[in-house]
Automatic annotation (TrEMBL):
UniProt superkingdom: Bacteria
InterPro entries: AB_hydrolase_fold, Peptidase_S9_cat, Peptidase_S9B_N, Serine_Prot_S9B/DPPIV
Classification via Gene3D superfamilies: alpha/beta hydrolase, Dipeptidylpeptidase IV, N-terminal domain
Dipeptidylpeptidase IV N-terminal domain sequence ranges: 123-421
A Pfam short name: DPPIV_N
Species of the source: Actinopolymorpha singaporensis
Record protein name field: Dipeptidyl-peptidase-4
């Protein structure tokens, strides 16, 4: 089978107005220009945020919003700070952005002091400090590459990671001073010969699978820090090569594949003189450091997790000695879920966590549930004197913001269907909303319960509005979105059916937001009925639903099969069950390849992007959570692998993989291709030179969508 070519009328070089695929790539899926990454001052008077200058400019800028006057002010513009206009990203920063799926450029992150008077950020591997009162932005002395700079609570010092160590700079130091001057120094770092040790950054599995990208935390009084140290020596070394540039040596990476060694992680108390003291817990039993919280409400809190993830502890730390005390233990026969924003102290000293029943994840104060059954808690967003701001929902397609008061009173802050997030501090509440009723992101500022203003969004408006029907299908009430061509007349023609899922744990595709369905609508307009369905294992439907994938990823395909049958019954005159395909990326790629291998009676073609094909090649934390240890459950891994089932392929399959992918490495696709070849099964492989697990490059992202479309049209006839 030959590689399909994009049609000339829609190629990247067309001289007409940009096509949707080009706009989608240029705007990073229409996300550029939306305000993001908010910080509210303790008095509620100032909001700091990031925003690109337009919906097609990737150079993110730093802004503030004055709540009293409702005015915005640009604080830092990368285009003016960098005299040559070019951004130099270190390998460490590129890896950090890959873990957080960051496709933009410029100022992509920042951190503030306690009173939100200063903001520190890295730009082009250099260190910058913005005075949010006066508006001055100056470069501080630093040693490149600068990663994750954070001011101390007073704003006098900034700590940042660089070259495997944690460094400290006095903000009174003059710009342009060389590293090692009295104003800038190493605070803590590897000893001579410790080539696999890093300080002050999160190890791979924490950043990729635990939603923890930080590696150090300031004490509330600014006199010391908690700093992560990890040693990657136990982690196998892999090599990512660039076959298109054979003169370049392969890049060595440490990748903790399932069943192999993890990084050895420890936590240290470090004072401003560089003196350090190890924080000790039973790391042999609980090797995963899930999160750290250090606020003025109580002593430092740690959450640690066993390797099999069936047990967890919450610990307090004595800052004087480094000793820890267990204050809470959790266990689950499947796994203990990681919930962002927990554990935390409440202002009155009670411990904030979540507790799981079979059907509901609830917020808990000192172990007692305070949110009602049926309200699924997704994350803790903020904690202040007014209570706890929580992301929660009773309907999986929606996400709402509620406030839980100190007395446990639950007050919804959003009610309209949509996907909402929020921040709160000092009487100011920020609500960030997407919906099926409007394009883009709406950011509302509430003061004392009333809307006080809005922060402007500069997103590009999509060239069309998705026409989405949300359904609950079958006895399992599978949340499903259905999209027909916008010019389709019911009953006029039977269309091929294209499933477009992610379909695995920790991610939702069926959301009450237009942006979630732009690509799906464009595909539908090319002559498909496009269906997006969230099956078992996906969030927002309770712990029991999430745990249905334990030892069994293959079962997630059963839900997609059920959806095909339900759609065929609901739309007998509009869909053709004899022409069914699936496309997906990452877990969705696994599911798509599985579909044509395991169920050729239902699925007639598939596009699998960056698929996991052999779970022994994926990382420890994610894979062992769901499938256990491969040495203890080899049959589980064999049952969920695509390699052993490859001989079952009877339908057209297009495999796409970035050769620079360090998350789902290209070996997944290459091994499946080898197994298919050994079984004599025809298939197509599209390797992407220099592309990682993301595809932010404009031409690559555009033409991939066009190539997928042509492949599907050819395969389905």
């Amino acid at each position: 089978m030959t590689t399909p070519q994009p049609r000339p009328a829609e190629s990247a070089g067309a001289t007409s107005a940009p096509t949707y695929p080009r706009l989608n790539a240029r705007t990073l899926r229409f996300s550029l220009g939306a305000p993001r990454t908010f910080t509210i001052a303790p008095d509620g008077g100032r909001i700091v945020f990031l925003r690109a200058p337009s919906g097609t400019d990737r150079g993110i800028e730093l802004w503030t919003y004055d709540v009293a006057s409702g005015t915005e002010r640009r604080v830092a513009d990368p285009a003016t700070l960098l005299t040559d206009g070019r951004e130099d990203l270190s390998p460490a920063e590129r890896a950090r952005r890959e873990r957080s799926r960051e496709g933009a450029a410029g100022i992509v992150g920042y951190a503030c002091d306690q009173d939100v008077r200063y903001a520190a950020f890295a730009l082009s591997s250099r260190l910058w400090l913005a005075d949010l009162d006066g508006g001055e932005v100056r470069e501080l002395p630093s040693v490149a590459p600068v990663v994750d700079p954070r001011p101390d609570p007073s704003g006098r010092y900034v700590a940042y990671a660089s070259n495997a160590g944690l460094r400290l700079v006095d903000t009174h130091a003059e710009a342009g001073a060389a590293g090692g001057t009295p104003g800038e120094r190493v605070l803590v770092g590897p000893e001579p010969g410790e080539t696999t040790v890093s300080w002050g950054v999160a190890e791979f599995v924490a950043a990729e699978e635990m939603d923890r990208v930080r590696g150090f935390w300031w004490a509330p009084d600014g006199t010391s820090l908690l700093v992560e140290r990890y040693d990657e020596a136990p982690v196998p070394q892999w090599h990512i090569a660039n076959p298109a540039q054979p003169d370049q040596p392969p890049v060595p990476v440490r990748y903790p594949a399932a069943g192999t060694g993890n990084a050895d992680v420890s936590l240290w108390l470090v004072d401003l003189a560089g003196e350090r003291r190890e924080v000790r817990w039973d790391a042999a039993a609980y090797p995963y450091l899930v999160d750290v919280s250090w606020t003025s409400y109580g002593p430092p809190l740690l959450r640690v997790l066993s390797r099999d993830q069936k047990s967890a502890q919450v610990l307090t730390v004595d800052p004087a000695t480094g000793t820890t005390t267990v204050v809470r233990e959790d266990g689950d026969p499947a796994w203990v879920e990681i919930v962002s924003g927990t554990p935390r102290w409440l202002p009155d000293g009670r411990l904030l966590t979540t507790v799981d029943t079979a059907e509901t994840r609830q917020l808990a104060f000192d172990g007692e549930p305070v949110t009602p059954a049926g309200l699924q808690v997704g994350a803790v967003l903020d904690v202040d004197a007014d209570g706890v701001l929580v992301s929660a929902t009773t309907e999986p397609t929606e996400q709402h913001v509620v406030r839980v008061g100190p007395d446990g009173t639950v007050t919804p802050l959003t009610r309209e269907p949509g996907v909402h997030l929020g921040r709160a501090s000092g009487g100011t509440v920020l609500l960030v909303s997407q919906s099926l009723d409007h394009d883009g992101t709406v950011v509302r500022v509430l003061r004392d319960g009333a809307e006080a203003g809005r922060i402007e969004s500069r997103q590009e408006r999509p060239p069309f509005t998705p026409e989405v029907t949300l359904l609950r299908l079958g006895p399992r009430e599978l949340r499903t979105a259905v999209l027909f061509p916008r010019d389709h007349t019911p009953g006029s023609r039977r269309l091929p059916l294209l499933l477009d899922p992610y379909g695995g744990p920790h991610a939702l595709r069926v959301r009450s937001a237009r942006a979630a369905f732009l690509a799906s609508q464009w595909l539908a307009d090319q002559g498909f009925c496009v269906v997006v369905a969230d099956g078992r294992g996906t969030p927002n439907r309770g712990p029991a639903w999430e745990r249905e994938v334990l030892n069994d990823f293959v079962s997630t395909l059963d839900d997609q099969v059920e959806v095909v049958g339900e759609i065929a019954r609901r739309y007998p005159d509009d869909v053709d069950p004899g022409r069914v395909a699936m496309r997906g990326w990452s877990y969705g790629g696994y599911l798509s390849a599985l579909a044509v291998i395991a169920r050729p009676d239902v699925f007639h073609a598939a596009v699998a992007g960056a698929p996991v094909t052999d779970w022994r090649l994926y990382d420890t934390c994610y894979t062992e959570r769901y499938l256990g240890h491969p040495d203890e459950q080899p049959d589980v891994y064999a049952r969920n692998s695509l390699l052993d089932a490859a001989a079952g392929l009877e339908r057209p399959l297009l495999l796409i993989h970035g050769l620079a992918d360090d998350n789902v490495v290209a070996a997944h696709t290459l091994r499946l291709s080898s197994a298919l070849l050994a079984a004599g099964r025809r298939h197509t492989v599209l390797p992407l030179t220099g592309v990682t697990h993301m595809t932010p490059q404009e031409v690559v992202a555009e033409n991939l969508l066009l190539l997928e479309l042509d492949f599907l049209r050819e395969a389905l006839g």
